Amino acid sequence: RRGGKRDLASLRAIPWVFSWTQSRFLLPSWYGVGTALEEFVAECPQENFELLQGFYRKWPFFRMAISKVEMTISKVDLQIARHYMEELSQPEDREQFEILFERIAHEYRLVSDLVLRISGHERFLDDNPELQRSIQLRNGSIVPLGFLQVSLLKRLRQHGGAGMIYSRYSKRELLDGALLTINGIAAGMRNTG
After folding, report:
1. Would you write out the chain's pLDDT as a tens digit for each of its 193 residues?
2. pTM, 2 dp
């Protein structure tokens, strides 16, 4: 946020995207694509769906756009994202966050289904097995870092307000640990916002 203001106009794009990436939502890169495709297909289901499949096969721009969405949704992990939401939100906000999470999960299922059907893939990135395997391997490191990050952020929030942390670790050690998880997740995701 610019100047410490807490309004929408002061929100900066890079930290906004970065936070969605760290929490494994990657929302800005795919949210709404499924709904847009679904609405287009609904106008004339068979004809428009075949048109999208034809665009994917013959139009490099459309293929690249769908491939980028496919690559980013292959990195989404809604279980980790839910963990961030449940552990780092205020108890009084959880019900609203749950409603929001379900909307996001619905859009994720929708875009996933449509991207796979348009591309003709059974699984994400079937046409790029090297990237598919790379993402699977990196997830082995990113997932534990996500849990560790949530734990560290939670400790910092619970005990860091007064400048003193009542634990066996100093505030500086917890902050350094959190920063290391941020760097590790960013490196593993390979697209940080």
Report:
1. 456 565 556 556 678 788 899 999 999 999 999 999 999 999 999 999 999 999 999 999 999 999 999 999 999 999 999 999 999 999 999 999 999 999 999 999 999 999 999 999 999 999 999 999 999 999 999 999 999 999 999 999 887 655 555 567 788 899 999 999 999 999 999 876 5
2. 0.86
Q: Mind spelling out the 3-state secondary structure of the chain?
A: CHHHCCCHHHCCHHHHHHHHHHCCCCHHHCCCHHHHHHHHHHHCHHHHHHHHHHHHHHCHHHHHHHHHHHHHHCCCCHHHHHHHHHHHCCHHHHHHHHHHHHHHHHHHHHHHHHHHHHHCCCCCCCCCHHHHHHHHHHHHHHHHHHHHHHHHHHHHHHHCCCCCCCCCCCHHHHHHHHHHHHHHHHHHHCCCC
